[in-house]
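Milestone M4 deliverable, item 7.
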Amino acid sequence: MANEPMLKFVVRGQDYPVKRDASDRTADFGEISARYNDEAAGEQASRCSQCGVPYCATHCPLHNHIPDWLRLTTEGRLREAYELSNATSTMPEICGRICPQDRLCEGNCVIEFSGHGAVTIGSVEKYITDTAWENGWVEPVRVGPAKGQSIGVIGAGPAGLTTAELMRARGYEVHVYDRHDRAGGLLTYGIPGFKLEKDVVMRRVKRLADAGIVFHNSFEVGRDATLDELRGRHDALLIATGVYKPRAIKAPGVGAPGVVDALDYLIASNRKGFGDAVEAYDNGGLNAADKNVVVIGGGDTAMDCVRTAIRQGAKSVKCLYRRDKANMPGSQRETKNAEEEGVEFVWLSAPEAFDGTDAVSGVRAIKMRLGAPDASGRRAPEPDPGSEFRLDADLVIKALGFDPEELPHMFGAPDLSVTRWGTLRVDHKTMQTSVEGVFAAGDIVRGASLVVWAIRDGRDVAERMHAFLKAKKAASPAKVAA
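Output delivered:
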């Protein structure tokens, strides 16, 4: 493999890691794909055309040095490949697993445009970093000289953890506050293990704790401390809570038992995976076993729900989505995985009502058709009169996306300004909110988005916080020695 030249896409075809057979992988929550061996990783990396203007890197929110670490992989210089991938990303093995590469780097690969199939960038990235962990190349966080200042990070998701790591490396005291009993945010409790096994997240969290970052789990701002109280404890704060408020459906019967929110369902499943006692799962409320399940929505969260229901032993799983397959917002790869695993998609359909009083028994729906483009440029769905139909359902999962929670009220911080969408308003030059010394990043600013964008925001806000704290320290009166 050493010193093998690149540009092999004309003689080597695209070859992703082998997926486990659907009947095998649906029996557990393990990841569905094997990992490349050394030879396969080098061969697939060697397909890179080493573009002068690498569109893959341009369309990566982190602007990862993709062609460079592909070449290093081909040459067998794996430690250097890891160090280069780690230079721009705090979580390369996580991005390698869950980024929608088909919409980002791989979707913009030049050899994909030429009809040869994109370089399998995400799978190589996963291989590089997993190899680094196994060989002990992932070093502890190098903590800089103590700055004598502290920051508080509210939210232990990818944006918050990225900022925490980069600020700790600069020598700041870092405290992370999170509502859950484990750090990681949606990486831990929102994304199922078949996409991201939890030990992958937990080892990242442990690395941060080993660096002296203090985690305050099961901590709710507004209950355990107000925002002003946290401001009194720290020299600067970051709000990186993400967006957790589920979008509602307005339809008769939506309040019937058995009509549940996607995040409640996924959190219960992930908690069971950790071995926790989860009453709502154990009593059947958030458990799909032996049930006819209908999931409403077409994004990645909906795909997580349908594939989780299959693994829980559902009698049937249907996904109801108001647009067609070509216009769904979720990853096409995830849709294909779901179809392989036995999920039935009911395209161009929307719910109108839910049957059942003591428990949901069915979904009354109507077929849709695509009309003129809406403000986003996508053709707007509209009902097709006279096309009503009904689906049996013992469990209905609403996966329509997420909106921001009312943070000013929750945090006891009326001075915290929000946009008309409920996201936090920031000065995009400084990334500060309307409250001095309080920064914000990730989904709570940009709305529901991708993990890779949260990491990018965490990286950017760390630079802004560092500049703010340097200026704050310089402006403070010098301490007179006793």
